[in-house]
């Protein structure tokens, strides 16, 4: 921490500006192409909706089991008037 403070204290405007163009070029160069981003976002969207669908099917399966069990209990109870 003290080393960084000392570097900052001794940094001059000329030294900072001298490396500016190189730093700007590093920031502006593309790390990944647009095609990689499109494929990546597509995979993530596919995974998100896949998990969403699986969750919905799981909830539907549980609700179906509960409803069927309730209907079977109601139809086999002695007080049923069907």
What would your notes on this structure say?
- This protein has helices spanning 2-10, 13-18, 20-28, 34-76.
- It has one domain.
- With 82 residues, it is mainly α.
- 0% of the residues are buried.
- Helices cover 82% and strands 0% of the residues.
Question: Low-confidence runs (pLDDT<50, min 5 residues)?
Answer: none
Q: What integer value in Å does the Rg equal? A: 32 Å
Note the gap between the termini. 81 Å
Query: What count of structural domains?
Result: 1
- The amount of beta strand, in percent, is under 5%
- What is the N-to-C order of secondary-structure elements (H for helix, E for strand)? HHHH
Secondary structure tally: strands? 0
Main beta sheet strand tally, sense and closure: none
Q: What is the tally of helical segments?
A: 4
Morphology call:
elongated
Q: Average pLDDT, to the nearest integer?
A: 85
């Amino acid at each position: 921490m003290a080393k960084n403070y000392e570097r900052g204290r001794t940094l001059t405007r000329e030294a900072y500006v001298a490396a500016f163009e190189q730093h700007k070029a590093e920031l502006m160069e593309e790390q990944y192409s647009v095609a990689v981003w499109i494929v990546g976002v597509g995979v993530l969207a596919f995974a998100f909706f896949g998990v969403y669908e699986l969750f919905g099917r799981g909830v539907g399966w549980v609700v179906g089991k509960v409803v069927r069990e309730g209907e079977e209990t109601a139809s086999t109870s002695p007080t049923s008037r069907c």
